[in-house]
Write a structure and sequence with these properties.
By secondary structure, this protein is an alpha+beta fold. The protein folds into four domains: 88 residues, Uridine Diphospho-n-acetylenolpyruvylglucosamine Reductase, domain 2, CATH 3.30.43; 119 residues, Uridine Diphospho-n-acetylenolpyruvylglucosamine Reductase, domain 3, CATH 3.30.465; 112 residues, Alpha-Beta Plaits (2-Layer Sandwich); 116 residues, Alpha-Beta Plaits (2-Layer Sandwich). Helices cover 35% and strands 20% of the residues. The chain has 16 helices and 18 strands. The strands form four sheets. Strands 15-12-14-13-17-18-16 form a seven-stranded antiparallel beta sheet, with helices on both faces. A five-stranded antiparallel beta sheet has the order 5-6-10-8-9. A hairpin with a 5-residue loop joins strand 8 and strand 9. Helix 8 crosses helix 11 and helix 8 packs antiparallel against helix 14. The chain is globular and about 70 Å long. 47% of the residues are buried.
């Protein structure tokens, strides 16, 4: 990514202005400090001119009003855990860090909702809700460190999406700051609310390009009475895939239904798997389904029996139900360890996050295997079977992909995905990484409408520029003179 020199920094006047607006303890200008906020989990990087911290909505309003007047790019940042470059300051400018706005303002047990600031860690909200007998279902893999504001900006999914849906299903209302510095409120605690246009969801999944979320009202549900975790081994991924449509037709709605292919499983084994879990895995296993059921105890017991019957008709090798919470945690550790374990096979992978209609997953996996054979690749897969979300890790047979090969293979994977009615991004967003491929899913008229909305709310193009839209430059003028 082209960017300004590492040594380029905000000019003296901008430093003075930002320090005057926020105070010295909320501003960073030294190069080593700015480098800390130059990247996210995508691997993309670009050094900002300045880094500032907000502790209240007024701080955000002040920064955005100032940046709008001076036409300085601003990139909002939560935990920086995004995988598509959404928090990378691609056009330089100011990184506005929101992690200090981290208060849980209310757990409303009467109306089953919570009011939280944007920087609240997802797991902290989940834990606080559970202490009140309530449940916040969205569960991205990054829940231990990602923020609610970032989850909303990316419309995060997670492993419980098949039953409970994704983040957008839980956002009742938002407080946000527009690019011109104005504070707006959208939605409410009311279940029925048609007071004006329904604009809340416009900001969900907008990746920080339309406004900066400062507060959210999120829906909670009652904590399930019982949770049962099942590990089912199969001789191949196709056999595992046959379970899904049968399960959905049966009326059983699993809380989670994760699949892990043989190569991912082997990588976790190589890294070190607990002995008791290793013993549960049948020696002929080429795919595993991790299925979790929750709800009333009697219903969960009945559903577990149905799941077993279906798996038996699909050539399962073994079926195990976690005997206690500790064993459950160790089973899920296998799934959560995959990303780290893959580095033992290859130091760098092309990571993709695609979605197809759930019943099409076996077909998609067959197409991917054919692509791997034709191109002499390793394509490893795992993900959320019941909602059609596949996570892919791709490399050459014995080395990382080159840049040219990465672009070629990415387009081939996306073309296969679209041919099955799928989407090029399921839960990781578009950001910098996927923007040039967005036209595979959205036609010109739809993209034009989205751009018109962006230009209406952000006419100067200062809020997280260079993201989402194909052809948008990543290297804009970083600092124009004051307008006369």
């Amino acid at each position: 990514m082209k960017n300004t020199s590492d040594n380029e920094c905000a000019d003296k006047k901008t430093k003075q202005d930002l320090t005057s607006l926020l105070g010295q303890d909320k501003c960073l200008f030294d190069l080593e400090d700015r480098w800390t906020y130059a990247f996210d989990a995508s691997g993309k990087q670009a050094v900002p001119l300045a880094v500032v911290f907000a502790t209240c909505p007024e701080d955000v309003c002040a920064v955005m009003h100032y940046a709008s007047t001076r036409r300085i790019p601003v990139v909002p940042r939560g935990a920086g855990s995004g995988l598509t470059g959404g928090a990378v300051p691609a056009a330089g400018g100011i990184v506005l860090v929101l992690e200090r706005m981290n208060r849980i303002l209310e757990i409303d047990t009467q109306n089953l909702c919570a009011v939280v600031e944007t920087g609240v860690i997802t797991a902290d909200l989940q834990n606080s809700a559970e202490k009140k007998g309530l449940f916040y279902p969205p569960d991205p893999a990054s829940a231990a460190f990602s923020t609610i504001g970032g989850n909303i900006a990316e419309n995060a999914g997670g492993m419980r999406a098949a039953k409970y849906g994704v983040t957008k299903q839980y956002v009742l209302g938002l407080e946000a700051v527009l690019p011109n510095g104005r504070l707006i409120t959208l939605g409410s605690k009311c279940i029925k609310d048609v007071a004006g246009y329904s604009m809340t969801e416009l900001f969900v999944g907008s990746e920080g390009t339309l406004g900066i979320i400062t507060k959210a009202i999120v829906r909670l549900v009652n904590l399930p009475e019982t949770v049962k975790t099942l590990a089912v081994c199969f001789p191949d991924i196709q056999a595992a895939g046959r379970v899904v449509p049968l399960l959905l037709k049966s009326g059983v709605v699993p809380c989670t239904l994760e699949f892990i292919d043989f190569f991912c499983l082997q990588a976790v084994r190589n890294m070190g798997m607990s002995d008791d879990i290793a013993e549960l895995i049948h020696p002929d296993t080429r795919a595993i389904l991790l299925i979790e059921l929750d709800g009333a105890a009697d219903a969960v017991k009945k559903d577990a029996a149905t799941v077993r019957n279906i798996c038996e008709t699909c050539s399962m090798l073994s079926f195990h139900s976690a005997r206690n919470p500790e064993e459950r945690d160790r089973l899920w550790a296998v799934r959560r360890s995959i990303h780290g374990a893959l580095t033992s096979l290859c130091p760098h992978w092309l990571e993709e996050d695609i979605a197809v209609p759930p019943a099409s997953i076996p077909v998609m996996l067959e197409k991917l295997q054919a692509l791997a054979t034709a191109e002499n690749l390793r394509i490893l897969s795992f993900g959320h079977y019941a909602d059609g979300n596949i996570h892919l890790s791709v490399s050459e047979a014995d080395a990382p992909l080159s840049l040219n090969r990465t672009e070629d293979i990415t387009r081939k994977i996306f073309s296969l995905t679209v041919s099955l009615g799928g989407r090029i991004a399921a839960e990781h967003g578009i950001g910098l990484v996927k923007k040039e491929y967005l036209g595979l899913n959205l036609d010109d008229a739809t993209l034009d409408l989205a751009l018109q909305i962006k230009k209406m709310l952000d006419p100067e193009g200062i809020l997280n520029p260079g993201k989402i839209f194909p052809g948008m430059s990543e290297t804009k003028i970083l600092h124009k003179p004051d307008r006369q």
